[in-house]
Amino acid sequence: MSEANSFSKRLQESMLNAGYKTRPVVLEREFNQRYWGNPISVQAVRRWLNGEAIPTQDRLQIIAEWLDVDPHWLRFGEKLSGSVRQQHKRWDIKMTPAERQSIEIFMSLPPEKRKMVGEIIAALAKP
């Protein structure tokens, strides 16, 4: 079985476990609500679900966060012990209470508003 086929099976399993239908339009809609870059097409998503392609790492990370699965497992089918949690702890430790509150408010927003806020932050960060 090819890597893309194996990835496809894990993606479909993760979608079903999270309560989503394994349809391209569902994945396309949910992904684009969460991704701050250029939106993807239904055709691209169909290739992921049909085992014809594997998303780039940044896109894979968004899918894994949405479906609450380990990105390494989603991509390769192997579990890493705590690596994702450890990564989150590193940046979290450096936050002030006000920054934590801002992140909590941001995370409570619906996906489309989080995307909008992300675009504003990206625009403000440009020199």
User: Which range does the strand content fall in?
Assistant: under 5%
CATH top level assignment of the largest domain = Mainly Alpha
Rounded to the nearest angstrom, the radius of gyration is: 16 Å
Number of helices: 8
Sheet/helix structural class: mainly alpha
Order of helices and strands: HHHHHHHH
Report on the architecture of this protein.
The mean pLDDT is 86. The chain starts with a helix and ends with a helix. The chain folds into two domains: 3-76, Orthogonal Bundle (434 Repressor (Amino-terminal Domain)); 95-125. 11% of the residues are buried. It is globular, with a radius of gyration of 16 Å. It is built from eight helices and no strands. With 127 residues, the chain is an all-alpha fold. This is Helix-turn-helix domain-containing protein. Residues 40-74 form the HTH cro/C1-type domain. GO terms for molecular function: DNA binding.
Which structural traits does this protein have?
127 residues, 8 helices, 2 domains, Lambda_DNA-bd_dom_sf, Cro/C1-type_HTH, Helix-turn-helix domain-containing protein, 434 Repressor (Amino-terminal Domain), DNA binding, single chain, mainly alpha, globular
What's the short story on this structure?
The chain is mainly alpha-helical and 127 residues long. It has helices at 3-17, 24-34, 42-49, 57-67, 71-76, 83-93, 97-108, 111-125.
